[in-house]
C-alpha cells in the first residue's frame, strides 16, 4: 500500500513543477529582421555589393560584435570588404543596423545567380539568442560578349592621364593676380598709403588728428575754441572758399557726400556763432563738448572719402 498524500501537499507540489517548467523553458525574446539592398542584379566581376540588415530586439539585449564576420575572404568568389553597425533605442526596443559591403570576384560567360551566405548574429542578455538572415541571391552578368572566346580577349594597358597645357591657366592666374594688385594699389592710393604716389592728406583727416591731440584737454575752453576753428578751416578748404552758415546749402550741393550731415553742420555753425560772437566768455556748451566735435569730424572724414 502506498501512503496517501494530502490535497494541500499535492497542490504545492504541482505549483513547484509549474515554476520549474517556466524557468527551464523561459520566454523567447521577440525580434524582427528586415534585410534590404540597393538591387540584386546587374553586377559584374569586381563590383561592390551593398547589403543592409535592420534587427529589432528587446532593449536589454546587446549585439555580440566580436562574433560578427571579419572583413576578408568568405568564399572563392566573394570577399567581405567592410562591416559597420549602429544601435538606436526606441520604446523598449533596440534597433541594430548592420551595413556590409561585399565584393564579387566571379567571372561568368552568361548571367548567373550567386548566393551570398546567411549571416549569423548573436545577442547577449538575460536570455542570449542568435538570429540568422536568409541567404541572398544576386545576378552576375558577363563582361565579355558570349561570342568572344577567352583567348581572343586583349587586355588593355593602363591609360595615362591626358597631358594638358597649363599655359592658358598661367595666363589667367597672372591676369587675376594683376587685377588684385591694381585694385590694392588704387585702394592704397586713395588712403595715402603709397609712398611714391602719396597724395596730400584730406582736410578733415588732418583735422581729426589735431582734435585727437586736443581731446586730452576736453575741459579747457581755449582748446575747445581751437577745435571749432580747426573744423572751420577744414570746411573752408573743402569748399574752396570761406564757408559761412548761410552758404551751407550751396556747399551741400557741391559736395553731396556731406548732405547727410546737414543737421549737424547747421548745429555747428550755430555753436560757432555762440562761441565767438554771442557768448564768447560762456563755459563750454554742455550739448556740444569736445567729443561731439570729434565725432562730427569723424563723420566728415567718412563723407570726405566718399567724395574722392
UniProtKB/TrEMBL annotation:
Keywords: Membrane, Transmembrane, Transmembrane helix. The chain crosses the membrane at residues 173-189. This is Putative mxaA protein. It comes from Methylocaldum marinum.
Amino acid at each position: 500500500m502506498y501512503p496517501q498524500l494530502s490535497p494541500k501537499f499535492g497542490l504545492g507540489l504541482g505549483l513547484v513543477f509549474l515554476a520549474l517548467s517556466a524557468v527551464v523553458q523561459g520566454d523567447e525574446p521577440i525580434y524582427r529582421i528586415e534585410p534590404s539592398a540597393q538591387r540584386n542584379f546587374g553586377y559584374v566581376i569586381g563590383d561592390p555589393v551593398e547589403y543592409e540588415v535592420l534587427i529589432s530586439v528587446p532593449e536589454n539585449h546587446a549585439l555580440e560584435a566580436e562574433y560578427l564576420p571579419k572583413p576578408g575572404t568568405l568564399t572563392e568568389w566573394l570577399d567581405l570588404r567592410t562591416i559597420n553597425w549602429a544601435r538606436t533605442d526606441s520604446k523598449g526596443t533596440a534597433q541594430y543596423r548592420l551595413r556590409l559591403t561585399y565584393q564579387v570576384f566571379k567571372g561568368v560567360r552568361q548571367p548567373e545567380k550567386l548566393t551570398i551566405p546567411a549571416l549569423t548574429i548573436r545577442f547577449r542578455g538575460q536570455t542570449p539568442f542568435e538570429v540568422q538572415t536568409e541567404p541572398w541571391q544576386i545576378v552576375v552578368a558577363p563582361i565579355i560578349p558570349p561570342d568572344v572566346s577567352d583567348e581572343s580577349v586583349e587586355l588593355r594597358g593602363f591609360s595615362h592621364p591626358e597631358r594638358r597645357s597649363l599655359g592658358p591657366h598661367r595666363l589667367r592666374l597672372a591676369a587675376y593676380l594683376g587685377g588684385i594688385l591694381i585694385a590694392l594699389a588704387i585702394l592704397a592710393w586713395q588712403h595715402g598709403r603709397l609712398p611714391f604716389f602719396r597724395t596730400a592728406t584730406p582736410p578733415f583727416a588732418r583735422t581729426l588728428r589735431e582734435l585727437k591731440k586736443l581731446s586730452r584737454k576736453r575741459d579747457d575752453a581755449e582748446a575747445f575754441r581751437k577745435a571749432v576753428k580747426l573744423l572751420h578751416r577744414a570746411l573752408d578748404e573743402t569748399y574752396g572758399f570761406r564757408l559761412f552758415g548761410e552758404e551751407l546749402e550751396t556747399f551741400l550741393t557741391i559736395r553731396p557726400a556731406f548732405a547727410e550731415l546737414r543737421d549737424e553742420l547747421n548745429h555747428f555753425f550755430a555753436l560757432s556763432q555762440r562761441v565767438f560772437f554771442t557768448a564768447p566768455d560762456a563755459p563750454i556748451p554742455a550739448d556740444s563738448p569736445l567729443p561731439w566735435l570729434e565725432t562730427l569730424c569723424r563723420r566728415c572724414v567718412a563723407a570726405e572719402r566718399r567724395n574722392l
